[in-house]
């Protein structure tokens, strides 16, 4: 059953299963070589994680967020990562933390143009996870992972143009440099500006990007 859960979780977080897509039991039991029992238990697990939702007369679907849910998650994310940025800047003088942080964020210094939103999302996730990881706060790491932020980013990826990606990379570098300099106020300010801009861009995306409000 763990294999089924991990297959579905990985598929959702890499958009092999897209937001709003129906997960058809007959297809999945055949493809995964399992019975309906373990599959339904996997659905229950992933529903509890916020990755799947059950809709009457449609069955299990990959969770698709409303605009309100997305903005609310951005608000929570901003506060959590602002704290992480401050803590990371305070911790970065420790050699092990600095080395791990520098290694994790190495892709942001590449000058190669980011032409594909989908290809960029892993770099984005790795960067933000690195900030939280360098905070040294295990509870913060757990809370951050529970937000399922990749789900938000994959849902809005269609609106991420090459210009937006370029701007985002520049902001990542500003945040990273402030952390590496040990400047906690600057790191927090840059992080807040980055995520507030992202939330504003998200709020102005076409309504079809999101699930209808209920």
TrEMBL record:
Name the PROSITE patterns on file: HTH_GNTR (PS50949)
- Keyword annotations: DNA-binding, Transcription, Transcription regulation
Q: Where is the HTH gntR-type domain?
A: 1-65
InterPro entries, per database record: GntR_C, TF_FadR/GntR_C, Tscrpt_reg_HTH_GntR, WH-like_DNA-bd_sf, WH_DNA-bd_sf
* Pfam families, per database record: FCD, GntR
Q: Which species is the source of this protein? A: Microbaculum marinum
Name it.
GntR family transcriptional regulator
Enumerate the GO terms in the molecular function aspect. DNA binding; DNA-binding transcription factor activity
Name the coiled-coil region(s).
none
């Amino acid at each position: 059953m763990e294999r089924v859960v991990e297959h579905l979780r990985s598929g959702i977080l890499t958009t092999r299963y897209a937001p709003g897509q129906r997960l058809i039991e007959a297809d999945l039991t055949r493809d995964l070589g399992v019975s309906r029992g373990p599959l339904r238990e996997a659905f229950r697990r992933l529903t509890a994680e916020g990755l799947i939702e059950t809709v009457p007369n449609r069955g299990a679907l990959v969770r698709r967020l409303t605009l309100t849910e997305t903005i609310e998650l951005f608000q929570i994310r901003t506060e959590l990562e602002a704290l992480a940025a401050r803590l990371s800047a305070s911790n970065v003088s420790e050699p092990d933390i600095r080395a791990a942080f520098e290694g994790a964020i190495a892709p942001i210094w590449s000058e190669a143009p980011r032409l594909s939103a989908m290809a960029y999302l892993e770099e984005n996730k790795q960067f933000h996870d690195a900030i939280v990881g360098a905070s040294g706060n295990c509870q913060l790491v757990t809370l951050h992972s529970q937000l399922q932020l990749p789900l938000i980013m994959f849902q809005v990826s269609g609106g991420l143009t090459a210009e937006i990606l370029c701007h985002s990379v520049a902001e990542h570098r500003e945040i990273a440099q402030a952390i590496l300099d040990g400047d906690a106020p600057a790191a927090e300010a840059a992080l807040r500006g980055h995520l507030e801009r992202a939330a504003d861009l998200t709020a102005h995306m076409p309504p079809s990007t999101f699930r209808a409000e209920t």
